[in-house]
Design brief:
Layout (H helix, E strand, L loop, with lengths): L1 H24 L1 E4 L3 E3 L4 E7 L18 E15 L2 E14 L3 E5 L3 E2 L2 E2 L3 E6 L21 E7 L10 E9 L4 E5 L3 E2 L2 E2 L1 E2 L4 E7 L2 E12 L5 E6 L3 E8 L5 E9 L4 E5 L10 E3 L1 E8 L4 E2 L4 E10 L17 E5 L3 E7 L2 E14 L3 E5 L2 E7 L4 E7 L2 E6 L45 H33 L14 H14 L2 H15 L8 H8 L2 H15 L9 H19 L15
Parallel strand pairs: 2-9, 22-30, 24-32
Antiparallel strand pairs: 1-3, 3-5, 4-5, 6-9, 7-8, 10-11, 11-17, 12-19, 13-14, 13-18, 15-17, 16-17, 18-21, 19-20, 23-25, 25-28, 26-28, 27-28, 29-32, 30-31
Helix pairs in contact: 2-3, 3-4, 3-7, 5-6, 6-7
Length: about 575
């Protein structure tokens, strides 16, 4: 028993010694120990145990001070004096994140660990201002190499910088993968698709892949742009001319440093751009009270991101009311840079006849190419607003005569009537009953006149549309009358009149809300059906294609149902002014 125990102890001791020897022989080396910031390093790990080649090394300790770009593995076998030995090797490409003295920590493969390796990282050499397009001296006799450049090395804050990348490929590539360049952890935006063409360099034919990127520095000072990383498999022939195994290759180049300048004091509140243009169009040259006019303002910029574009709005005036649409913003990414366009449509409805002046619009901007401040302007415009087409004096238009029935004619007008002056009756001029008929006829005409004037207010609204944000200047117009105007507008199937009739009624129904958009009304009533109908109405007014819209009756029905449900949910049986809940017709 003692003999077996001693043998067991001996075997355990040999295994421990073997493990220690293996651990000691797992070596880590680098291809260079003195590098420049941004320059990649090949960390080679060799383990005399090829059976672990399928095991991926644990690289978690590297992530603190290094970026891992890729890893390649291989195994080998040697036979010396009849004794064979195998080994596994991993080549890991890393890039330092810091400058100074760094230590590459151990790499683990199962229970094996490598040694630490010390390296020195020097700052990147500043680029000459006379040659801003060259990031570093590049060896052009390599089968694959990369060049990077910028259009300016001393840009202003918020100005656009174009970063150009060219990759020269002289051999076939497999499984190519190109990362994006980075600036302080933020990616650059590609400007359009990449270009591909052929070029002869030092007598060797290359396929050139070129891509431009856009960058907008946000802070003054130094900004470092790290070059992209190309990783691909290449197949090279061995010394006997035979095709070898695929080999992973990583290609990059040195980073570029920008010296970002702060904006001058005169440009602190200005738009930074390479160019700015501003123009406008009007949908009509003739202005009439109550008839909408569409003003389209277009702002086009070069070198401005969309989040920095100014808003184009107008304020209301006693002479008109304005209703802006949602702006249309378009961005084109081209080789020339970022081209941003914002198109703003504003509907103006004149509320008074006379001369109106649309104020000027000024956009102050800073030219990042010349360093000068400029102003893009739309000069003030003056228009003459004509009265509405049928806004003549009511006294000049007599109502059509109708057969008179004295017994059925109402004798009391709904509003106060002017005094009627009658000459004293002369006994010889006519008979007594004829005077009675004349008086009754005058009273009937006056009653019809005031009935016709009240009726005219509704028909005028249907014909002309709204007068500003409220459809009637009569402050005494109550919710019931506004509701009847909605009904009349819906029966007319005039989309624009329906829109502003609903807004006018809603502002009287809920005066604290101040509605300006139909979507606010549908949100108040919480009716999906009404929301869809009102959305279709808006699209018919301001959409790209004007459709023959005929859904007034559907909107009125949906509006009645939504209002009824809304009031039932709030348990409102009767309004404070004595009106029924749904304004009976």
């Amino acid at each position: 028993m003692k003999k077996y125990f001693l043998n067991f102890i001996g075997i355990i001791s040999l295994l421990m010694i073997n493990t220690v020897m293996l651990a000691a022989t797992m070596q880590a080396t680098v291809d260079q120990s003195n590098v420049v910031a941004g320059q990649p390093i090949i960390l080679s790990i060799k383990l005399p145990k090829s059976m672990l080649i399928a095991t991926r090394p644990d690289l978690s300790l590297l992530s603190k001070d290094f970026d891992v770009l890729g890893i390649a593995s291989s195994s080998s076998m040697q036979i010396i004096n009849g004794q064979s030995s195998t080994s596994a090797r991993w080549d890991i490409k890393i890039v330092p994140k810091k400058i100074g003295e760094l230590t590459i920590p151990p790499v683990y493969v199962q229970n094996y660990s490598s040694n630490s390796v010390a390296i020195h990282v020097s700052p990147a050499t500043p680029q000459a201002t006379t040659q801003p397009s060259i990031a570093a001296k590049t060896t052009t006799d390599q089968p694959i190499y990369m060049q990077v450049s910028v259009d300016k090395t001393t840009p202003y804050v918020n100005s656009e910088v174009t970063y150009n990348v060219k990759i020269y490929v002289g051999i076939p590539l497999l499984n190519a993968n190109l990362s994006l360049p980075e600036v302080d952890g933020n990616m650059l935006k590609p400007l359009g698709p990449s270009k591909r063409y052929q070029q002869m360099v030092n007598g060797q034919q290359y396929v050139v892949i070129e891509q431009n990127f856009s960058l907008f520095p946000q802070q003054a000072g130094k900004t470092v742009i790290r070059a992209p990383q190309l990783q691909a498999d290449v197949i090279a022939n061995d010394r006997y001319g035979m095709m070898g195994m695929p080999k992973t290759m990583q290609v990059t180049t040195n980073p570029l440093t920008l010296n970002v300048k702060a904006l001058p004091a005169v440009a602190k509140n200005s738009l930074s751009a390479q160019s700015v243009s501003l123009n406008q169009t009007w949908s009509a040259n003739t202005w009439k009270v109550g008839e909408p006019i569409t003003r389209t303002i277009t702002l086009k910029t070069v070198g401005v991101p969309t989040n920095l574009l100014p808003s184009l709005t107008m304020s209301n005036s006693p002479m008109w009311n304005s209703y802006p649409d949602k702006p249309i913003i378009q961005t084109d990414l081209s080789d020339q840079g970022v081209i941003s366009t914002v198109k703003q449509k504003i509907v103006l409805i004149p509320s008074q006849a006379g001369t109106v002046t649309i104020p000027a619009i000024n956009i102050h901007w800073f030219n990042t190419m010349t360093g000068q401040t400029k102003t893009a302007s739309l000069i003030a415009s003056t228009f003459t607003v004509e009265p509405a087409a049928n806004s003549v004096t009511l006294q000049n238009k007599a109502p059509a005569m109708m057969p008179m029935s004295v017994a059925s004619t109402p004798a009391t007008p709904t509003t106060a009537t002017p005094a009627i002056s009658l000459k004293p009756m002369h006994p010889l001029s006519t008979t007594y009953w004829l005077w009675i008929v004349s008086v009754l006829t005058m009273l009937w005409l006056l009653t019809m006149f005031f009935w016709w004037r009240q009726r005219k207010q509704v028909t005028q609204f249907v014909a002309l549309g709204p007068q500003g944000s409220h459809l009637s200047d009569d402050k005494s117009l109550d919710k019931k009358q506004a509701w009847h105007q909605v009904q009349s507008a819906c029966h007319s199937n005039n989309a624009r009149v329906i829109k502003f009739a609903i807004l006018d009624w809603a502002n009287k129904e809920w005066p604290e809300k101040h509605y300006r958009q139909l979507s606010q009304v549908s949100q108040q009533l919480q009716s999906p059906e009404l929301h869809k109908l009102l959305l279709d109405l808006d699209q018919s007014l301001y959409g790209k294609t004007q459709s023959d819209w005929q859904h007034g009756a559907e909107i009125f029905t949906a509006l009645k149902m939504a209002l009824k449900k809304n009031r039932q949910s709030k348990k409102v049986v009767k309004s404070d002014d004595g009106l029924p809940p749904l304004y009976p017709e």
